[in-house]
Input
Amino acid sequence: MDNFRPALSRLQRTWGRLLLLLYFTGVLVGLAQVLSRKSSEGFFGMNKSQAGESVIVIVPVSGMITVSEQGQILGSSSSDRLVRHLKALSEREEVKAVVLRINSPGGSVGAVQEVYDEVLRLKKAGKKVVVSMGDVAASGGYYIAAPADKILADPGTLTGSIGVILQVGNFQELFKKIGVKIEAIKSAEHKDIASPFRTMTESERKILQSVISDAYGQFVQAVVQGRKLPLEKVLTLADGRIYTGNQARAQGLIDDLGNLETAITQAQEIAGIKDKPRVIYDEDPWGRIFTMFSQKSSAKIWDSTLANLGVHFAYLWQYSY
Output
């Protein structure tokens, strides 16, 4: 009994620390949500814009693009938050141009398309949109860049990866080894399509391939319309491969090479701003608070979560794992 007490005491201390960590994490999440709401209502530094002032806003798109705002904790970009912010910018008269600073390998199909649609609406509202690519702007990261008025990248930026992927896990052989059998009671033949507990049938494979082909076609059309390239040319480029900034410029996937400052200058020129504009960096409050979560870690968590679900449907450059 005496030997057991020290072990029990250590266990209690460990649980105590864990509960304390969870408490402070909850506080930080609440604070981040408040900051995020404030940011969407009035961007940092924009509430006191002077009459007649021209503003260029830099909006960061970093990490995986997901629908859930909780994704921000893991260092990814919430499409919900990005859509709110872009919509708010479209309604600000003083905002003449928006620079999307993209450093993302893509994300889920729905989330990427939500941001893409809002970029189109931003342009329809009369705002000029310039994209500045960072280390990576591939797959879904390139999808949301396609409709921009100008796309700039560094010579070594990795972009392209035009395509879509759906991954289905299969644990059938593993479950056989450990003596687990899963049976599904379903309303129709395809209700458990993509189940990780059995081998996929040929008819199911055709159905899922048709889903992939449809999403792929949507991506290709976005590039054709946004970059004003012939469909035949885009199809030759859209085989999933990545390109450097140099290669992408040669193929017409981007307009020019340059860093963020070059993109800001380009935004000023195409927006027709004569005087020096006010440049505001729309800093992500989630990113400021949760900087301890690295991109690599967030990708692993994303991968682990989707593996548990058994299905992965995304505009995503796979090496990001």
User: Anything to note?
Assistant: Residues 4-41 form the longest helix (38 residues). Residues 52-320 form a domain with the 2-enoyl-CoA Hydratase; Chain A, domain 1 fold (CATH 3.90.226.10). The two ends are 48 Å apart (CA to CA).
